[in-house]
Design goal:
- The chain is α+β, with helices and mostly antiparallel strands.
- The protein is built from three helices and 15 strands.
- It is elongated and about 70 Å long.
- It starts with a strand and ends with a helix.
Length: 224
């Protein structure tokens, strides 16, 4: 668990989130500041609960690899995700992202999560669509349950405190002030007037590649 000053955290939390890199493949960086460590401290874990809209998703296979190397800890709800689905056939995704202490600040926490933009329908005039990502909710789970009911409220989260425990524990939500209410992801999209050209080029490329494969099979293939 991470040691937090419960009384300081009662005064609220500051949250910032950034979308790093460009294009479809980004990194979501979340930072939480809870207050200075004091004498009346509980042993707690900190997490950020954020809802990703249909235009953004997390690759569960990539996440599993990161968790195996202890680079990221997160819980996806639902845990079965169609990574090939376009935006208009996808649904929202709830992510519980476990935070790690920031070595540069005794009362700060941070975590990063790779996210990916989904393909959208072609647009009429613009070459980009905007996907809005709301500020996350700050959650705390304490081993000794010493949180004040005046400052914290129970949160309905079915997930372990540490990201490794088998059974769920009681999470609590804390008031916070986001530096920015939302983040904007710009996703490139095609133009609808280019549909005919894209179809023709795709058809020609398919015919050419199929012909090359068939020629190679006939020339070098072994037929019994």
């Amino acid at each position: 668990c991470v040691i937090l000053d419960v009384q300081a955290a009662c005064r609220g939390a500051a949250v910032t989130q950034e979308l790093l890199s460009e294009g479809f493949h980004r990194d979501l960086l979340v930072k939480v500041e809870l207050g200075a460590v004091g004498e009346d401290a509980g042993r707690c874990a900190v997490a950020a609960r954020t809802r990703l809209p249909a235009g953004i998703y997390v690759d569960p296979y990539e996440l599993a690899s990161l968790q195996q190397h202890n680079l990221t800890k997160a819980v996806l709800i639902p845990d079965v995700i169609d990574v090939e689905a376009p935006e208009y056939l996808a649904t929202d995704l709830l992510v519980l992202l476990y935070m790690e202490p920031d070595p540069r600040c005794s009362h700060c926490f941070r975590a990063a999560l790779p996210v990916h933009g989904r393909y959208h329908r072609p647009a009429e005039e613009t070459e980009e669509v905007l996907v809005v990502l709301k500020s996350p909710e700050v959650l705390v789970c304490c081993c000794d349950n010493c949180l004040s009911a005046e400052c914290w409220k129970p949160a309905e989260v079915e997930a372990p405190c540490s990201g490794k425990n088998v059974g769920p524990c009681q999470w609590y939500s804390v008031r916070h002030k986001p530096a920015y209410e939302e983040s904007i992801l710009q996703v490139p999209v095609g133009l609808r007037q280019h549909s005919s050209l894209v179809c023709v080029v795709t058809l020609l490329a398919t015919v050419l590649c199929s012909s090359l494969i068939l020629t190679a099979v006939c020339k070098y293939g072994y037929f019994s």
